[in-house]
Amino acid sequence: MIEPVEGVEPQRARCITAPNPSVLTLTGTNTWVLFEPDAERCVVVDPGPADDAHVDAVLAEVERSGCEVALILLTHGHADHSGAVDALHAQTRAPVRALDPAWCRGTVSLQDREQIDVDGLVLQVMATPGHTADSVCLHVPRDGALLTGDTILGEGSSLIAWPDGRVGPYLESLKRLRDLAAAGASLTLLPGHGPLVLWGLPALDTLIAHRAKRLDQISNVLDAGSSTVGEIVAAVYGLPGPALRDVVVAQVQAQLEYLSATGNARAADALHR
Ligand SMILES: [Zn+2]
């Protein structure tokens, strides 16, 4: 049994939250500015939505840090993270890198396990598919910190919207992140939405348990006679409001696809009904 150790406030990360709060984006998208102390160049992770005022706020934080932007990174391609990529790229001339080559500007795509060094700021890339196929997390070893994008949120659980979102890869990604958290003295999570999470290991255990519980619930309602996506949504999630209905349906489909792939014939039937 590994006792969790409280994480520490990161020294190398500053957060600017975009003014796009919603039921899905929580308080808004977090843009992170990362730099090694006394460095002349920094990295911006997730420029945020297409919002000029937010881009100005990010550039103001960059100026306060005394750095120039050397590199722009994306944790994944969703518009609330990537909408400002071209505006920030145009204003800073910094190259853009993501796992998906379609988002890269002036350079090549990120690779799993790649190490990036910008003026002494070390980042390790971890491909963590699940929320989307192109999701990555970025480990900042010297801060014991992990930028999680939407793979882990600061509150609640991530959306896995089938077919781009997939439960099997997501569970593997959570396991890999848990191994990282268990291997170090601490891991502070810096999410794409919501507050930072100082205790990474118990947070990961909670998320892994939550996913297992949801899959059990869906398996049980299938056994009890629910046979369509709509019936399962109602039985497990109640009646989601209009803003959430489509994403809850896609979330249920993702779980049915996973159960189907693990041999649950009722899930395979329900997936397309
Ligand atoms: Zn997302």
Compressed to H and E, one letter per element, the order equals EEEHEHHEEEEEHEHHHH
Strand tally is 10
Structural class: alpha/beta
The first-level CATH class of the largest domain is given as: Alpha Beta
Instruction: Determine the number of helices (DSSP H or I, runs of at least 4 residues).
Output: 8
Essential attributes:
273 residues, 2 domains, five-stranded mixed sheet, 18% strand, disordered N terminus, binds zinc ion
Verbal overview:
- The chain folds into two domains: 13-198, Metallo-beta-lactamase, Chain A, CATH 3.60.15.10; 200-273.
- Helix content is 38%, strand content 18%.
- It has helices spanning 52-65, 79-82, 85-92, 167-183, 200-223, 229-237, 242-261, 265-271; strands spanning 13-17, 30-34, 41-45, 68-73, 96-97, 115-118, 121-127, 136-140, 145-149, 188-191.
- β3, α1 (52-65) and β4 (68-73) form a beta-alpha-beta unit.
- Residues 1-7 have low confidence and may be disordered.
- It binds zinc ion (ZN).
- Zinc ion is lined by residues 76, 78, 131, 150.
Secondary-structure topology with pairs:
Layout: E1 13-17, E2 30-34, E3 41-45, H1 52-65, E4 68-73, H2 79-82, H3 85-92, E5 96-97, E6 115-118, E7 121-127, E8 136-140, E9 145-149, H4 167-183, E10 188-191, H5 200-223, H6 229-237, H7 242-261, H8 265-271
Parallel strand pairs: 3-4, 4-5, 9-10
Antiparallel strand pairs: 1-2, 2-3, 6-7, 7-8, 8-9
Bound molecules: zinc ion.
